[in-house]
Design goal:
Layout (H helix, E strand, L loop, with lengths): L2 H12 L5 H7 L3 H12 L3 H10 L11 E2 L4 E2 L5 H16 L3 E6 L26 H16 L5 E5 L4 H10 L10 E5 L2 E3 L17 E3 L5 H7 L2 H7 L4 E6 L10 H9 L4 E7 L9 E5 L2 E5 L6 H5 L11 E10 H8 L5 E6 L3 E2 L5 E2 L6 E6 L12 E4 L2 H4 L12 H14 L2
Parallel strand pairs: 2-17, 3-4, 3-8, 4-5, 9-17
Antiparallel strand pairs: 1-10, 6-7, 8-12, 9-12, 10-11, 13-16, 14-15
Helix pairs in contact: 5-10, 8-12
The structure holds uridine 5'-triphosphate.
Length: 416
């Protein structure tokens, strides 16, 4: 018997994952069989065991000391401070010390668009895609600062080819191709409710992107950190693909981080009310953190300050700036994984494709903001929702293309 097959059989037996051999036996050719065995050999089964065990654990925050975090309100800065931060930040940008990263590895399941979210036509008269809308801001910055800002786009295995093709087909939206780099995020197997690794329709291991927190390790593995350092980058803005008002090049944010001698800065907007489903910045055991809406108690969510504002009201909008030193440090750490229970198509033991109508599989995701706790401190810059936050999440209703389009148009009319 093939030595490799023997080795794989032993591993699968040890970890109780022998069902994967059904997949092996059904594969048509020798090449597919070898690829399959190789993919099994790359799985970290100890990690899979730990992840499955974590599905049954409930989180306990009672031992954590949660406190509000200090922030700076951009609109209330004195003219003097505003100009000081802007000057420091502009200098860094002009010197070519800034890079931006767009996280576009998500599945965009709620939007339901067939294709990467960034390729979605927002429905403006110009029919610009989300990627083009983001690129516009880089082109403006290029004009203003007379510098080519490197743009890194994180994709996933599922959408990388389509994303790269889209950029090529659109001639990189007129931005220099040499400034655009794609890199793929990591992935993890999906598990059944019994902790068994699932097979996808093609009979391969069923994997899913490992969450936006996977960005740091992917930047290390794919050589992005190395590339940034070679270019002399000091500050890296990291944002999601789905905010069509994202301000990726913000001199004030960079100036604030520099001035406060911190290795990261995050933008916040005021939480709309105690019940809004957003994560908020806070301090957890003295370290910067984000507490999710599902984790904060009703009483805490409703607490107010002396001026009547929510005590925990600085919403995290996935617009963060990191010093390259912080990225390097975080990329070598293991961030915790969060479990989501999802609907996932799979191949059953008889080789039939099953399309569940109810959630059936565990998916594991790391969250970018879990990295904040590894930093001693970070600066928070409160910005205006109507200027910087127009998310495209759902097909209809709140945070949909319709609401984002309106916010985008209103903002651009106001700033003509
Ligand atoms: P969301 O958490 O809103 O997920 O991602 P999503 O995949 O876009 O949408 P749903 O939940 O499936 O409907 C916020 C940002 O993080 C990126 C997304 O592309 C988006 O820019 N992201 C998310 C990744 O890059 N990788 C991931 O694994 C998850």
């Amino acid at each position: 018997m093939d030595e490799k097959l023997k080795q794989v059989e032993q591993i699968l037996k040890k970890y109780g994952q022998e069902q994967l051999l059904d997949g092996y036996n059904r594969l048509p050719g020798e090449k597919e069989k070898q690829d399959f065995l190789n993919s099994i050999l790359t799985v970290d089964f100890n990690q899979i065991e730990k992840l499955f065990a974590s599905c049954k654990e409930s989180k306990d925050f009672s031992n954590s000391k949660i406190e509000p975090i200090d922030y700076v309100d951009k609109s209330k800065l004195s003219k003097e401070d505003y100009e000081k931060y802007e000057k420091i930040g502009s200098k860094k940008i002009k010197e070519g010390k800034l890079a931006v990263v767009t996280m576009a590895g998500g599945q965009g399941t709620r939007l339901g668009h067939t294709g990467p979210k960034g390729t979605y036509d927002l429905g403006l008269d110009t029919h610009k895609s989300i990627f083009e809308i983001l690129c516009d801001t880089l082109k403006e910055a290029r004009e203003k600062y007379k510098v080519d800002i490197p743009w890194y786009i994180m994709t996933s295995d599922e959408n990388n080819a389509e994303t790269e093709d889209f950029f090529k087909k659109n001639n990189y939206f007129g931005y220099p191709e040499k400034c655009i780099t794609f890199f793929k995020q990591g992935k993890l197997p999906m598990l059944s409710t019994e902790g068994k690794i699932l097979l996808n329709e093609k009979g391969e291991i069923k994997e899913a992107a490992d969450g936006h927190g996977g960005i740091f390790q992917s930047m290390l593995k794919d050589g992005v950190i190395y590339d940034m350092k070679a270019r002399g980058i000091e500050w890296v803005f990291i944002g999601g693909v789905d905010n069509v008002l994202v301000k990726m090049v913000d001199s004030v944010l960079i100036g604030l981080a520099e001035e406060k001698h911190v290795l990261a800065a995050g933008k916040s907007i005021v939480k709309a009310g105690p019940k809004e489903k957003v994560g908020v910045f806070c301090k957890k055991n003295g370290k910067p953190s984000v507490i999710e809406y599902s984790e904060i108690s009703e009483e805490m969510a409703a607490e107010t300050t002396a001026d009547g504002e929510l005590k925990y009201g600085e919403s995290h909008i996935l617009c963060n700036l990191f010093n390259i030193k912080a990225i390097e440090k975080i990329s070598k750490m293991e961030l915790p994984y969060h479990v989501a229970f999802k609907k996932a198509k799979y191949l059953d033991k008889d080789g039939n494709v099953v399309s569940p109508t109810e959630p059936n599989a565990y998916k594991f995701e790391a969250f970018l903001f879990d990295a904040f706790e590894s930093l001693d401190d970070m600066a928070i810059l409160r910005v205006k929702r109507e200027d910087e936050f127009a998310p495209v999440k759902n097909a209809e209703g709140v945070d949909s293309p319709e609401t984002a389009r309106k916010l985008y148009i209103d903002f651009h009319n106001k700033n003509k």
